[in-house]
Design goal:
Blueprint: H1 2-14, H2 18-41, H3 45-93, E1 100-104, E2 108-114, H4 128-141, E3 148-153, H5 167-184, E4 192-196, H6 209-215, E5 217-223
Parallel strand pairs: 3-4
Antiparallel strand pairs: 1-2, 2-5, 3-5
Length: 224
């Protein structure tokens, strides 16, 4: 029996509870903290003031930086909304409401142009009358730094003639034609992303001619 108690005592002595390790770390950190405080109090007055001022300026600077970032975002949103309003006014002045729509969402300022105003059927070459409208679009978005996604969309009627093998190819070519024109008007090319979706992202049913006309479109998305 005495031998059993001795073994239990030895085993308990070898245990290392987790709370003991945590307590040791805590005491070590507290000791270091008080040593730093003690060292700080031993500094001359002018050194202490300099250190205090530096720390204060550092944290104030973070708050100022945050306010500046928020202000820049607010100004950017105002510029985006003014751009959308400018394009809307252009659409009204030119009587293009039937073919052009401007929308603002959390992600984009979206300018939707229906293809009858831009292209002839099966073609990716811009019409002369389209260039006048796109010049104004270029003028409106040129000052902004935002990225611009230009999307081409078609209806679901298969292509029967011409150089393009599918609506997908045609939609990409049309998006590229718009980007090419806008860059020639001074919008920086690195801002653009071209996308072609063919007939795969319709906004309405392709069962009627009116629906197909709405689905044949170019979307110029100014990323917010």
């Amino acid at each position: 029996m005495a031998e059993y108690r001795e073994r239990r005592t030895d085993r308990r002595g070898q245990e290392n509870p987790i709370w003991l390790a945590v307590l040791s770390d805590l005491m070590t950190n507290l000791m270091l903290f008080f040593l730093v405080l003690y060292g700080f109090t031993r500094q001359p007055d002018d050194v202490r003031k300099t250190m205090t001022s530096a720390l204060s300026d550092r944290f104030k600077g973070k708050q100022i930086d945050k306010k500046l970032i928020n202000a820049e975002k607010a100004v950017k949103k105002i510029e985006e909304e003014e751009t959308a309003a400018r394009i809307n006014n252009l659409v009204k002045d030119k009587g293009l409401q039937e073919f052009t729509q401007v929308e603002i969402s959390e992600k984009y300022v979206k300018i939707t142009l229906k293809t009858p105003i831009l292209f002839t059927p099966g073609s990716a070459s811009l019409k002369e009358e389209a260039m006048t409208s796109l010049k104004e679009v270029a003028k409106a978005i040129r000052p902004l730094p935002n990225s611009v996604i230009v999307e081409g969309h078609t209806d679901n009627v298969p292509i029967s003639a011409g150089i393009y093998q599918s609506n997908w190819e045609l939609s990409v070519a049309r998006a590229y034609s718009v980007i090419d024109f806008l860059t020639n008007m001074g919008v920086k090319p690195e801002r653009f992303i071209a996308a072609g979706y063919g007939e795969f992202k319709p906004v309405t049913d392709n069962g009627t001619e009116e629906g197909r006309m709405q689905n044949r479109r170019i979307e110029i998305n100014v990323v917010r």
